[in-house]
Every structure is written in structure tokens, then in C-alpha cells.
Amino acid sequence: MSATTKLLLGSVLCHKLGKVRLTRSMHTHPALLSSFRSSKEVQSLEQYLEVEPIENAAAWKFVERLLPPPTVPRPVAKADYPSGWQPQKSDGSDSSYFVARTKNHMVPVYLHTCFRGQRRITVVRRVQGDIWALEKDLRSVVEQARNGKLCASRVNELSGQIHIHGDYVDILREHLKAKGF
Amino acid sequence: MLKNILNKSRQVWTPLARGLSKTNTQSNVAAESAAATNITKPALILPQDYADYAPLNRNAPRQAWIENIDAVAERKMGLIELHPDVFAAQPRVDVIQENIEWQRKYRYVSLAHAKTRAEVRGGGRKPWPQKGMGRARHGSIRSPLFKGGGVIHGPRSPTTHFYMLPFYKRVMGLTSTLSVKLAQDDLHVIENVDIPTRDAQFIKDLIAERNWGPSVLIVDKEYMFPENICYATDDLGYVNLMPAFGLNVYSMLKHDTLVLTVDAIKHLEQRLLYQQHRTDATSKGGKFKLDQV
To answer: pTM for this structure?
Structure first.
């Protein structure tokens, strides 16, 4: 970036911002350098609705109660959860591996289907640490469920995923929850 | 609480730094460093506040030194604790590669062009009669079978290669690259971007002194950089300034060293963690529309 561009960019932005502030203070932080089609052009103040700002409105908390939270809240600690969900207990210190929860506090075990539902693959994601040890454990769990028959599995160490042939989502999820993950 | 600490500490020593830069803008480097060492500032210890975003992964939180930039000689101004979900994420090199490929492609327009048999000049008449010559039948000398004829399925200009990478792959690209940069010791944290002089030699000396390598990307939260650093880096093609909202995988990998201010670190952490934890994440999926922000 050359000198002129830098200064020009700065001055143009400053000019733009100053203009916006003068005319309309609703959007003090415009979407910088985004597409020009992304928002309407700022018009004169008479074009907008009359707004009367109220300080410390007592009833506003009831509106806030209805608004969805912007981020996923932390789970509420309870003795017992009727849905069967349980919070993560282990921090991975007692075993060589760790399975992280998702942002929604769920165990990351999923079912992938392909070939019109003919191939079902159980995917365990967000594995950290010794993924091969976890694969060994999960294989033994699955083989127990299959009455000792071998099961096919695949480890992606880079992305921390284990793929297991067949639909063993519930079994593996319960197993991981029992281990505290 | 964290914000209070940050604000307080900034109020304490940022005015000093600004005063320095105003009075001693043209002084030489040695005097500057001597003056800077005389001033004692409280160490800047910035712990991470996990109240809003508890770490999802179990990597240990990273810590980075906060370095000064008001003198060539390096001084540790404090420590900052970095959120493990942003700065100790799984280094997904595959996602980094996808980001790089996307950044190369979305702005690339291929201008390769070949003419079809209709566009090549001539070839309107039948070159020889259909029968009686003992030769193969042909209707045009610009047929693709002919030398100098048109091209079938050739490149047509302009061909755009625009596409959008899924939103959360872009987020993961940023966290992965930041983690990789930190792990490879290519990420440095500075207190601010207030350098005392507008001399380019100051920046050159500073980069040489601190082994920042052949190219440096300096990122601040604000898009208006102070005058001194703008003038100092103007003529240096290998030192670039970028606001935090422009941070991208390609630039981070293109530059040898990534230098973030404390403000930029806090801003990036807040934005990236919000994206990782937001409840309306599905709204970021779906087809890319031209008029979206």
C-alpha cells in the first residue's frame, strides 16, 4: 500500500464517518467497505420515523426477556436432567484423550448416511489427544454391541475425527457420556 | 473487571506514550530508547475472562509477551493470556489451504479466449464440391477439423471463478492460522502502534533487532493508524498495516511475522468467539447473496 492510498483511505473514511454522524447517529459503526448494495443510502432525518428515547424504561426488561440470547448460554447446574443430557464432567486428565462438547453442550457423535441410506457411518468429532487410544476403546465398545464381530473404522488425526462403519450413534454417545465427556 | 484493568492501564500509560511521540518526533533512536527506559510503567497483566466464553477445547491457554514499540530495544511490557479456542485451536492445515485457494480464486477472472468456427474469419463457402473430387467432404475451411479452424469447447472470456467459502470454514481458517502463527513464534503482541518517529529507519532497525524476519504485517483494531507509523512504513513494501476487520488468512501467511496490538487481540478474540458461540449460526449458511453484508 503506498503513502497516498493510505492517507486517501483514511481521509475518505473519516469524511464518510463524519458525514454519517452529522446526519444520522443511529449507525455509528457502518459496515466498513462492504457492498454498496448492502444498505440503503442515508436520507434526510425527516424521512425517518419520529423516535422518542425513554431513559430507564421499567418495562424494557420484559422485552429483553423475550429476545433470544445472542450466544449459547452456559448450562444450568442441576442434580438431575430428565432429558438424559448431562454436563461434561471429565476434563481429560484421567485419560489420554478428550472429546470436546459442541457449543450447544452436546456430545459430537453424528450419523452420516450416503448411497440412499445404504451406508451408515458414525462420526465422532472434536477428539483431542491420543485419538488412536480412543479409537481402540470405541472399537471394543462397538464390537461388543456386534456380538464380537469386527468393525471397520477410520481415523482422521488431522481433523480429530473417528469414522465407524454402521449406525452406533446411541451406543457411542452413551459410552462417551458414561466416561464423562 | 478485565475491561476495567485494560482501560485503567491504558489511561495510565498511553498519554505518556503520546506525549513522547509529540515532543520527540525527530529525535534519534538512541536518545529515544534511553528516554523510554527511564519511564517506569506498571506491568500490563491481562488475564483472560472466561465468563462469557468458556473454552471448548482442552488445550492450555496460551500466554504472550506484550512488547513495546516506542523504542528499538525490546522490553516486555506485560503478559496477555490468549483464549485457547482462538489461539490454541486445532491447526487445520486443510482448512487453511481451502481459505488460501478461495482468496486466490474469488477475485480471479480468466481472460483466456478462443474463437469458435463461427467467429473465425471466412469459411462461408463450401471449399470443394461434395462429390467427384476424390476428397473428403467438407463444408467450411474453418471447421474444427481444419488447421486454422475454430476451437471446440475452448476457453471463453471472461470466466469468473467467484465462489464463497462456507462461513464457518472462514472462521476456522482464521483461528487455525492464528494458532499456527503463535505456535511457530511468528506472532508478536505490541502495546500500541505509537512509534516515536516517522523515520523508516526506526522500523527497519526494530525489525532487525527483534528478528521479525523479511516481512511484517501490523494489525490494529482501528482503521485510522497514527501518522508516524503511516509515514514510517510508506516506502517499505514489506511492512504493511491492516485494520483488524481486514485480517485474513492469505495476508497472515504471506507475511513472515504477524504483529497484533493488544486492542486488536481483544477485538479478534471477541469477534471470533462470538461467531463460534452465536445462537443464529445457521443464518450464516446458505447461498451467498450479492447484497448481503
So the answer is: 0.80
